[in-house]
Amino acid sequence: MAFKNSAFAVILLASLFAKSCAAPIPRAKPLVRRTANAKRGIAFSDTTTTDLSYAANTAISWEYNWAISPPANLPSGIEHVPMQWGKASIENLQDAVEKTGFKYVLGFNEPEQTGQANISATDAASMWQQYMNPLSTSGIKIGGPAVSSAPEGKTWLENFLSACDKKCKIDFLPLHWYGQGSQYFLQYLSDMHTAFPDYNLWVTEFADTTMNNEATVQSFLTDSIQKMDALSYVERYSWFDYSVSILLFEIEIQISFLSSAPRSVCKAVSLFWSPLLHVNILFLSDLLDSSGNLNNLGKEYVQ
């Protein structure tokens, strides 16, 4: 999941794309639509909403929030999957996971990225054997480090598995992908399955980054989830993400020596970059509209 390192942000709320994050978000009514899809989950950040009621009694069977503890308002029947995001407090992981009865745990979040978990492959392998492996003795299924689809992601994963020397307990591989065109996304999954045939896949972040074309994003979602439902080596997936649409256009002024801002709810495509100036257009893959209701994308994915 992306973070933005910014000290100041000037947000342009322009014409038809302007959306306010200050307005109160109405609480949704639970849906009764269809039985849960065992593969389909939601990536959830409470940055824009704490209301998960739209996910109740729907196709959504599981959720994760980049943290160990589940959201306060997680509907009954939706499984929380904890994540050890980075190396912080990893020594407490086993106790935290085992006492709550979780069945799965996710590993480091994009460890190859300096703005994410940022852990070397050798250090990750060492910590994995010390802190992650013991979970398997309790029957907990362990998801490997979730790498991005950037070339360095696959390289890092190869180096990690090499450093593990077959001593790291891993039951499945989580992956992230952002781009355009479901055919390229599905080809990436096929390529990673071929490269790492011993593991089934969880796609814990994916989205189409097309700008200003809802139909294209909708088509991507429709095709990708239908294909993944039919792929035996894809065990689970979660669209990025279950959150409220906030803005389309943003100008960020960055001061490099200042600390990181809170976690962003959107990925961003950079149009221009320098050490001090960042201009981003944010794509709208959120499943909720600016009022906190399911948008067309959300209705197809959730209901």
From TrEMBL:
Pfam families for the chain: Glyco_hydro_cc
Domain of life (superkingdom): Eukaryota
Keywords: Hydrolase, Signal
Name the record gives this protein: Glycosyl hydrolase catalytic core-domain-containing protein
InterPro entries assigned to the protein according to its UniProt record, in alphabetical order: ASL1 (IPR053183), Asl1_glyco_hydro_catalytic (IPR024655), GH (IPR017853)
Statement: the UniProt record of this protein carries the keyword Nucleotidyltransferase: no
An annotated Gene Ontology molecular function: hydrolase activity
Organism, scientific name: Lentinula boryana
Asl1-like glycosyl hydrolase catalytic domain mapped to chain residues: 41-241
SUPFAM superfamilies assigned: (Trans)glycosidases
Record's signal peptide: 1-22
